[in-house]
Fold this protein.
Amino acid sequence: MIEARHLRVLRAVARQGSFSAAARELGLTQPAISQQMKALEKSVGTPLVVRVGRGVALSEAGEVLAGHAAGILAGLTAAEDELAGIAGLRAGRVRLVSFPTASATLVPAAVAALRAEQPGVKVSLTEAEPPASVGMLRAAECEVVLAFRYPNAVAEPDDWSDLAVTRLRRDPLVALLPEGHPLAGRAEVSDLAVLADEPWIAGCPQCRGHLVDLCEAAGFTPRIDFATDDYPAVLGLVAAGLGVAVLPELALAASRTDGVAVVPLGAGIAREIVALTLPDLGRVPAVALMLEKLKGL
């Protein structure tokens, strides 16, 4: 018999490439990982991993089973939570994973609205950026992910075709300039080429990639002097006159902008904020309610 705990171990081994790394991820010992993998291989009657150097890789059978594991684990979670929901949402849980900007701006109001309506539903929050957060959803480590993507990015966005996507809002991008910058008084920066000679401050990796796309579309490659995932740090560097930046408007909602001129970019330059879940989980009452509250913001 294949057990859910064994499938979780298999997915961790597939992600990490070694028993020791999988043990660290799951908070287990390496011998425990090895024993559970042996038990799983005994259950299915064929090897699931092969040695590759100092690590391991999935065998053909392991790849097949790992491909089914996320759906199986999600189905089990859906069954558990849906049964709890039969009692009128007196129980149930939603494990929410969100990128930091949304955690500070969108999540509090949505969770408060859910708890006001159904106080018995337990909501937990973990912060992670896509694509890591999307991987957590596929690994059945959460029920809802708040993510974002840039529809016009040169690089292909993550494939979300296996997920249920709820579009929440557009988040326009803005240029951040030192307060005394010659362009600080403009109503709009419609062409980033006017900032081609400036030093740049970049944000998270996905935002950084989109910044490079935008600048190259305007005919130049930005000289990125500073890069940080911390938006207040970006604002501080801009305020100190160390460069210019482009950030999503929502990133400014929970940060001070003293010493920074915020200038909108051209129309249509925005990222899309979405809520993601697995199709099976979308039928779970607590998850559906969480999506409803997020969409209502």
User: Anything to note?
Assistant: The CA atoms of residues 2 and 43 lie 6 Å apart. The mean pLDDT is 88.
